């Protein structure tokens, strides 16, 4: 007798099992089930160094030709691309689909000190690194004024 109601699926036999063999998908059967949904939330880290803003995006399995990096008007850095779904053969039986596929898009408003004409991007081992150099901060020139009197 299962302790989980049947609408959660009958594949899990023990409610105390912290690692179920299957996970209930509330959108199973819908045209855009969660397995086929896009992964618009591609993970991106943004750090600022004294010289630049550095963005690192995890894009495993993608080639650099499948990723687009753009700077739009208004200092918007846009990282986009698409991971194609694996071709299904007629005789294939899928047991689990966890890897995401579809289009992704991330946008970041760059600060005023970004040098938009010197943005560089590189892809290595599934990690996209976008470097946006910063303009040097000009220290205010201080001029000593002599006091008469």
Automatic annotation (TrEMBL):
<dbReference type="GO" id="GO:0005737">
    <property type="term" value="C:cytoplasm"/>
</dbReference>
<feature type="domain" description="SHSP">
    <location>
        <begin position="35"/>
        <end position="149"/>
    </location>
</feature>
<keyword id="KW-0963">Cytoplasm</keyword>
<dbReference type="InterPro" id="IPR031107">
    <property type="entry name" value="Small_HSP"/>
</dbReference>
<keyword id="KW-0346">Stress response</keyword>
<dbReference type="InterPro" id="IPR002068">
    <property type="entry name" value="A-crystallin/Hsp20_dom"/>
</dbReference>
<protein>
    <submittedName>
        <fullName>Class I heat shock protein</fullName>
    </submittedName>
</protein>
<dbReference type="InterPro" id="IPR008978">
    <property type="entry name" value="HSP20-like_chaperone"/>
</dbReference>
<dbReference type="Pfam" id="PF00011">
    <property type="entry name" value="HSP20"/>
</dbReference>
<comment type="similarity">
    <text>Belongs to the small heat shock protein (HSP20) family.</text>
</comment>
């Amino acid at each position: 007798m299962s302790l989980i109601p049947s609408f959660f699926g009958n594949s899990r036999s023990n409610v105390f099992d912290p690692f179920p063999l299957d996970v209930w998908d509330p959108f199973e059967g819908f045209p855009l089930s969660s397995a086929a949904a896009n992964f618009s939330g591609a993970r991106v880290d943004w750090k600022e160094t004294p010289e630049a803003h550095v963005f690192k995006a995890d894009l495993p399995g993608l080639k650099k030709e499948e990723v687009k990096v753009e700077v739009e008007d208004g200092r918007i850095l846009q990282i986009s691309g698409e991971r194609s779904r694996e071709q299904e053969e007629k005789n294939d039986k899928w047991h689990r689909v966890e890897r995401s596929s579809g289009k992704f898009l991330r946008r970041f408003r760059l600060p005023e000190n970004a040098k938009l004409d010197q943005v560089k991007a590189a892809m290595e081992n599934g990690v996209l690194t976008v470097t946006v150099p910063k303009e040097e901060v000009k220290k205010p020139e201080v001029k000593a004024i002599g006091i008469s009197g």
